[in-house]
Amino acid sequence: MALSMKKSTDNDILSTYANSLSEEAKRRYTVKLLYNRGTCSLPDPYHLTENWSRSPDTWPDLTFGDIYLYLIDTPSLFTKESMKAYKSLDAYKYVLSGHVQEVISHQIDENCPYMTLKTKVTPSQRARDKPHEPWVYLEKASGSVYCAHCTCMAGLGEVCSHVAALLFKVEMAVKMA
Ligand SMILES: [Zn+2]
Asked: Does residue 151 or residue 123 have the better pLDDT?
């Protein structure tokens, strides 16, 4: 009767991680994945196991402006002042110092207006520290940031330095291409 061990509130379309969040955090996690006025739900990126791509060819044109708008508009530690000095942000330094691992992407499906990107960010030199795992959803057509999450947040914050680092890394790669 292994199934009866499952919490009754567990949701099969969510990752083990998301199901492990508090009820409030899990609700917020689920809500942020909604689109099309709440009628559709994006897949939980931690729950997608197949068809991830290592090629940046399909990444949308994410610009610094897209990152700026998202970080400023979303409740977080980022302010207009700190974004003006973005090169001194931890998030930017994580990218330059190689703390952001390879970015992989998933197109979801042809009809979905969003695609997701994820990576791992090693927070310190200590290899034993578990890396944080941010993901973002970008609008395919425009590159706008739709939503984001990171394992460091306990589900309650919306943006952290690891999400910002992922965005900066993608923006730098898109700019170089
Ligand atoms: Zn984080």
From this structure: 151
